[in-house]
Amino acid sequence: MTTVEPIVKSITVRVPQERAFEVFTAGMDRWWNREYSIGAQPLETVVLEPREGGRWFERDAAGGECDWGRVLAWEPPGRVVLTWQVSAGWTYDPALATELEIRFTPVDDGATEVRLEHRGLEQYGDAAAAMRAALDDPTGWAGLLERLAEATVPAA
To answer: Does this model's pTM top 0.85?
Structure first.
């Protein structure tokens, strides 16, 4: 199996590490792009259960749920590792597991670097290059991190 280069994206958010971690995990619903849904109905909320082994899923307005993956490591406020079990056809695939590692590192003036690495993309087989291109697109992980940065700004 050919190794596919991981996607690595980072952004600096102007909030302390604890706040960046909280908005990324418990506040994912505030920054996730609603168009990035794989459920049968429109996405209502995104849920990341705050523990190792927890589920990562979307819920629709009718209460239906669609899994995206699981929590592999829960180390607040510095790190979370998730499986991404979304197929090249944009459906949940329990047999597929790529990994997202997100690190939250304090930097100057109370800001935090958020670094996302999506690895294991070779699991997509023949679709690996296309999936890497889609996820590495400016509207992919980079765009989601931009939305995260906007969501960390306190309301006026």
So the answer is: yes
